[in-house]
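Your task:
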Amino acid sequence: MVLEELKIFYSWQSDLPGNSTRYLIQESIQFVVDAMKDVVEIDADRDTKGAFGSPDITQTIFSKIDESDIFIADVSIINKYYSMNVDGSKSKEIKTTPNPNVLIELGYAAKFLGWENIICVINTEYGEIEELPFDIRQRRLTPFSLSRDKRQKIKQELSSIIASTVMNVLNVGKRPKSGVSNHILGTYNCEHKQVQDILYPFAVTTSPNYINLLALMKQKSESLIKKISLIKLEAYIEEKPKHENNELPTNLTEDSDANSASFNALKLNIPNIDLFSVKESPCYVDEKKQSETRVKVRTYLNSELIEDFFNLGNLKKSVSPFPNNSTKYIGTECEKQKNDLICELESSLLELELLKMYIKTFDNCFYVPLAIHNISSVLDEDISIYITVDETSSDIVSPSGQLISDDIKGLEGIIYDTGFIKQLFLMLENSDIHYSEDITYSIEETLCQTQIFNFNIYGNSGPKYSIEDYSRELSKYIAKPIVENGNEFEFTIKSLKANEKSWLGPVILLKPKKDIINLNYAIKSNRSDGTINGVLYSDFNVKNT
C-alpha cells in the first residue's frame, strides 16, 4: 500500500542550549515519524538540509516552507533589551523577543500554511508566554520546562501534539502546494458553510426543498381563506321577474310603433333574440364545488371553512355572445373581490393536490447535490469533474418524459407550467455558495417559448406545454449520464477563484439498493496536478435523510 506523504518543516534557533530546546524538539518530531511510519510517510525537514553547493539560504528555506504541510517553530525567548525613549535614552521597560530568523520564517509560514498547520513551542525557563510579542502569544502555544517536568514526559507531550496535527492534516486534506490548485468535492454543510467529503443524499419526498414548497403553498391557501372569511356577504336572493303571466309592458301595445316582430314574439311568449344583448345571471358556487373545496381544505390544511364562506351576495355575471370575450361581473367591490379570492383559492388547492400526486413520482428516490470548493490560493479554470456511480449500491434515475407518476400521466405540460421541478431540485444560493452558471436557462427552451408566443398572437388561446417541455425541464435539474443507461457523469465549471465554492449543476437522482452507496470521482483542471480523486460514501444507517 502506498502511504500518504507529509512534510514537516522545523524552524529552530541556536542561541539557547541545544539539549534543552533544539534537540529536544527534534527528538519529539523524529519520535512521531517513527511511530506513524505505517500510517503516513513523514519527511522532517529544516533549514538547508539536503541542499547542495552554496544555495541561497533564505530562498531555500522559503521554498521548503512552501512545500511543507506542517510548520514547527521554536519561539523560546533569546533576547532581552530596553526600549528607547524619544530622546534616545534607554527606558526602564524591558522587551523580549524570540530568534528573529525564526520569526521571519513563522510569518511566512502563517501566510502560506495557515495557523491551523503551525505548532509554536516555547521553553518557559527562558521567558514566559506573556513576554512574547502580542500577535504570537495570542496563538495556541505549547510550553515546556525541564525544571518542572522530566525530559521523557515533555517528549511525550510534544509528540502527542505533533501527531494530532498530522492526523488533522490527513483528515482535512493536505494544503495544495504553491501554484497548484486543490479541490474538495462532496456535500455542502449549510450550518458550517463547508464542503465536506461525504455523501448526504436527500429523500425527495421528505427533502427540505419539498417541505418548504409544501409549506409555502399551504401558507398561500391559508392566507386566502383568512381574507375570504373576513368578507361577510349574504347568500344570493333571487329577484322576481318584472313581468309575470306574460303581461306586456305598459309602454308596449299593439298600437305602439315598436317593431311588429318584437310585439308578436312577446305575444306568442317566444323570446326575442337580440344578437347584441348581454345576458346576466346570478353568480354563486354550486354545492358540489363547495363540498369539494371543503374536503380539500380539511385534507390538506386540516381546517374547516365557516358556514357562510361561499356567500357572494347579489353578484351577477354577464357573458357576451361573441367568442373570446371575457365574463364581466356586476356587483359591489366586496362581492367581486370575494369571488376573485374564491377562484384563486380553488386554483391554489388544485395546485396543492397536484403537488401531492406528483411527488409520488419520486417514491424511494434520493437526490445527491454535489458541491466543490477550491481550497487552494490560486484561480483554477476548465475544471472537469467525473462521477461514477457504483451500480451495485444504487440504480440511476435519468430525466425523461416517462418519469412521472401513473396517476397524472398526460398532465406533463401542466406540471411543467407549475414550476414544481425547479423548486424541488434547485439548490440554495447565497454569498457563500452558488452555481457557476445559470442552470435554469436553456437556449432550446427560449426558442420554443418564442414559437409559442408567435403562435399565440395569431389567435391561439394560450401557451400549450407538452411532454417535451416537461422532459427538457427535468434535464435542467436532474443530471444525465454521459452515455444513455450508463453510470458515469461529467460536470464542467469554467473557473473557480481561490476559496470559492460552487454547486456542480443538476443533482444526481438515485434509487439505493443497499444501506451504503458510493460514488467515485476524479477532477481535472488547468492548475491541478491530476491526482485529485477519491470515493464519497453515504451510510443510510448513520444518516437519516
The first strand starts at residue 4 and ends at 11. The two ends are 35 Å apart (CA to CA). Residues 333-358 form the longest helix (26 residues).
